[in-house]
Amino acid sequence: MSTSPRARAQSPAPNIVRGAYYPSWNYESVNPSQIDFSESHFTHLFYAFVNPDPTTFDLVITSDDKPILSDLVSAAHNRSPPVMVLLSIGGGGVAAVFSNMSGAEDTRSRFIRSTIEVARENDVDGFDLDWESPKDAAEMVNLGLLFEEWRAAIDSESATSGQRPLLLTAAVYFSNRFFLPGDVPRVTGIQDLTSNLINS
């Protein structure tokens, strides 16, 4: 959560996003009230991590998360201009949950509906999906469907409620076609990347 003296001396240009993750496990050492918002270090903070229930796919804010998230939202929103807080959903170890959830329209719908409810209940500004990582072409298709349906649901809820649309961002891999040894896809080189972009 620290920045260099040079960075602190510069103010962000208009429409520039300055994002950072706020890991819940650092709450004791870095309380939200200790974060220096005064020089606009951040425009967006990503609360890491929350996850869907592996059976129902409802997004879960645990009893441990609740007070931390409340403190973070309060500290971020009470600045001028306010810093937006997004729920980062995922992280390591939940790829199977995302795979199962995204594979059918009804489970995607349940997940999406619960995320919007959780966001409004906790006064957060949106979501950051951190799926590590879709493993094949079918999961990439399901990821695309999830984003399309999520965006439509967010827009519909905003129009109905009159509230500002929730933000939707992602930290996901752009293709399932590049692999290094191991389970997580990686770009193997600039040549491979160039070939893929040309042949797509």
TrEMBL record:
<keyword id="KW-0326">Glycosidase</keyword>
<dbReference type="GO" id="GO:0008061">
    <property type="term" value="F:chitin binding"/>
</dbReference>
<dbReference type="InterPro" id="IPR050314">
    <property type="entry name" value="Glycosyl_Hydrlase_18"/>
</dbReference>
<dbReference type="InterPro" id="IPR001579">
    <property type="entry name" value="Glyco_hydro_18_chit_AS"/>
</dbReference>
<feature type="domain" description="GH18">
    <location>
        <begin position="16"/>
        <end position="200"/>
    </location>
</feature>
<dbReference type="GO" id="GO:0005975">
    <property type="term" value="P:carbohydrate metabolic process"/>
</dbReference>
<dbReference type="GO" id="GO:0004568">
    <property type="term" value="F:chitinase activity"/>
</dbReference>
<dbReference type="GO" id="GO:0006032">
    <property type="term" value="P:chitin catabolic process"/>
</dbReference>
<dbReference type="Pfam" id="PF00704">
    <property type="entry name" value="Glyco_hydro_18"/>
</dbReference>
<protein>
    <recommendedName>
        <fullName>GH18 domain-containing protein</fullName>
    </recommendedName>
</protein>
<comment type="similarity">
    <text>Belongs to the glycosyl hydrolase 18 family.</text>
</comment>
<dbReference type="InterPro" id="IPR017853">
    <property type="entry name" value="GH"/>
</dbReference>
<dbReference type="InterPro" id="IPR001223">
    <property type="entry name" value="Glyco_hydro18_cat"/>
</dbReference>
<dbReference type="GO" id="GO:0005576">
    <property type="term" value="C:extracellular region"/>
</dbReference>
<keyword id="KW-0378">Hydrolase</keyword>
